[in-house]
Amino acid sequence: MLPYVLKTGDLTVWVEALMAESRVAAPVLKETSVSDATDLKFGWAYVEEAADVRLDYTVTVLGPKQFLWPPRQRLVRYHLGEDPAPEALIDHERTVLFGVHPCDLTAIATLDAAFAKDVADPHYLARRSDTAIVGLDCGAPCDESSFCLDMGSLYPESGFDVMLTPLGDEYFVEVATERGQALVEAANVHPATKQDMEAHQAFAEEKRSNFHYRLPYETKYLPEVLDASYDSLIWEAIARRCFSCGSCNIVCPTCYCFDVYDQVEADLTRGCRIRRYDSCQLDPFAEVAGGENFREDRASRLRHRMFRKGKYILEQTGRPGCVGCGRCDRACVAGISIKDTYVQIAGSR
């Protein structure tokens, strides 16, 4: 499909048109304290006013994963002591994720593969099938924590319906799917001219010059580098700083581990089965019946997470487990960096 252009002044009208048909989630400006050292002033939220959408954002604490894979989700409702079968709760409705950066597009593709593998997850896939995605290209790294170029998430080839590229007072609009074409029909777009095409090429050239590799090796070697470091003392050294708080897992756009529990009403006649985010960094995560814990020390938990991000998820899904977004680095109160760890293990063998 040939590309279009959209004037920045027409963006709000387009979002309003989308909101008339679907829920729209996008980055918005959030209230921050003057004492907030992180300066992460943007966050993802369901849009209440189209004018609130901010496509000038750099990074957010949490990505758009939360709208496809909620922190807490009801799975089944049931009646105790009665014959009727439990009722599956597949809650979803038409949604547009608007302004998704390349790293998060890559992360969503990883979640798609994980939840469709083996026994497909109906709750995730129902939400995903009803969700359209408008991507937003970025021309420079968010900050020093980002290493998306290394992790292959800077140039996603799929996982979006529309891709926007900011070109000054307009957006270059590329349509990737039929659903994307339907989205664009609600916008005041115009066919891209020769000058628009040249401006898009200039953006791509500048983008290539702005991003640099951060790891001392190609990431295709990362699984083997991790294997060679399994018994390294570096894991114990780094883990001495770790609080096992799980913040890294909560903000990670590709973490999908969960716990399941039952919430029973006070009258003991009804109940609901619920799942919620879980973290491999928490002490009880690997505990099994009888009290045995297969990863009871911090070093083994930290190593497991680094292996999962750089090796295990890739082997299980064929998709990267780390997209180099840097969220875990920013969230870690101990200052542990996954990027720096992948650099250090290269020399610890």
Key structural traits:
349 residues; 4-stranded antiparallel sheet; 8-stranded mixed sheet; 12 strands; alpha+beta
Descriptive overview:
- A hairpin with a 5-residue loop joins strand 11 (258-264) and strand 12 (270-277).
- The strands form two sheets. This protein has an eight-stranded mixed β-sheet with strand order 3-2-6-7-8-9-1-10. Strands 5-4-12-11 form a four-stranded antiparallel β-sheet, with no helix packed on it.
- It has twelve helices and twelve strands.
- The model has no long low-confidence stretch (mean pLDDT 93).
- By secondary structure, the chain is α+β, with helices and mostly antiparallel strands.
Concise overview:
The protein has helices at residues 11-19, 65-68, 102-116, 122-129, 178-184, 194-210, 222-228, 234-239, 247-251, 298-317, 327-331, 338-344, and strands at 4-7, 23-29, 42-46, 72-79, 87-88, 95-100, 131-136, 162-167, 170-175, 190-191, 258-264, 270-277. It is α+β, with helices and mostly antiparallel strands and 349 residues long.
Helices and strands, in order, run as EHEEHEEEHHEEEHEHHHHEEHHH
Helix content: 25-40%
What is the CA-atom radius of gyration, in angstroms? 22 Å
Sheet having the most strands: 8 strands, mixed
Multimeric organization: single chain
In total, the number of strands is 12
Distance between the termini: 49 Å
Strand content: 15-25%
Structural class: alpha+beta
- Numbering strands along the chain, what is their spatial order in the largest sheet? 3-2-6-7-8-9-1-10
Contiguous helical run count: 12
What would the principal axes of the Cα set say about the shape?
globular
Outline the low-pLDDT stretches.
none
Average predicted local confidence, pLDDT: 93
